[in-house]
Design brief:
The chain has one domain. The protein is about 45% helix and about 25% strand. The chain is built from 6 helices and 9 strands, in the order H-E-H-E-E-H-H-E-E-E-H-E-E-H-E. The strands form 3 sheets. Strands 7-8-6-5-9 form a 5-stranded mixed beta sheet. The chain has a two-stranded antiparallel ribbon with strand order 1-4. Strand 5 and strand 6 form a beta hairpin.
Length: about 140
């Protein structure tokens, strides 16, 4: 029975993660596209709002504009009873999250940045096409 449950969960996680990008692109690359988008794991396209990309670009330093890759991908940890979301990416993505959310610090666990549901809500409400959420 446990094997069947694990198999079912595995299928569900794959379905949840079909909307994640195959690869993330730099902000400048996306801004240069007529219709900015990236291919998803499921074979579809994730479309970005050009207005959101431009607004984000104006709010960032030149250094961050050149380094950040989008969309910002968060993976909900299912191992914790708390709503923890791990950020895919590195220092540039973490800095962008801090700036958008207006926080001075993002915690790390085993080298990975993470945050909680209230911060995710801020990000999604401000830039809905720049954030993607999946399962860890």
């Amino acid at each position: 029975m446990a094997d069947k449950v694990e198999e079912w969960l595995s299928i569900q996680f794959k379905k949840i993660n079909e909307g994640l990008p195959r690869r993330r692109l730099k902000l400048g690359e996306l801004l240069s596209m007529e219709r900015p988008s990236v291919e998803t794991v499921g074979g579809g396209l994730h479309h970005f709002s050009k207005t959101e990309l431009q607004e984000l670009s104006r709010s960032l330093s030149e250094d961050l504009r050149e380094r950040v890759r989008l969309p910002l991908v968060f993976r909900r940890s299912l191992e914790s009873s708390e709503s923890i979301y791990y950020l895919d990416g590195g220092e540039a993505e973490a800095e962008v999250v801090k700036r958008i959310a207006g926080v001075g610090f993002l915690p790390r666990n085993k080298g990975r940045y993470f945050t909680y549901k209230p911060i995710i809500s801020i990000l999604v409400s401000r830039y809905p096409t720049l954030v993607v959420i999946g399962a860890a």
